[in-house]
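Known limitations

C-alpha cells in this collection are predictions and should be treated as such. Users comparing against experimental data should check residue numbering before alignment. To illustrate the layout, the record for Gas vesicle protein is reproduced below. The input appears on top and the generated C-alpha cells appear beneath it.
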Amino acid sequence: MSKNGKNTAGILAGLLAGAAAGVILGMLYAPEEGKETRKKIKDKAGDLKDQAKNKYGEVSEKVKDQYSNISSTFKETANSVAHTVKDGYDKYKDQIVSKTADVVKDVEAELNDLKK
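Generated C-alpha cells:
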C-alpha cells in the first residue's frame, strides 16, 4: 500500500475512533436509565461498525484502482522503453553493418591498387 493509502487509512481509523468515543461518553453522561443507555451504545456501535466497513470498502477499492492504474502505466512505459531501445539498436546495427561493408570495399580497393 502506498504511503498516501496508509495515511488515509490512519486518518479514517482515528476519525472513527474519536467519533465512537464521543458518542459513548455523551451517552454515558446523559440523564437516562442504564438499560436505555446500554441499548443506545449498542445501536451506535453497530452503526459505527457498518460505517467503518463501508469506508474500508471504499478505501480498499480506491487503493486497488490506484494500484491497477500505476501497474498499467508502468507496463506501458516499460514496453515503450523496450521498443525504443530495440528500434535504436536495429537502426545503429544497420548503420554499422553498412559502414563496415564500405570500409571492407575501401580496403579491398586499396589492396588491389597496391597489387598493381
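For this record: The two ends are 77 Å apart (CA to CA). The first helix runs from residue 3 to 28. Please report discrepancies through the issue tracker.
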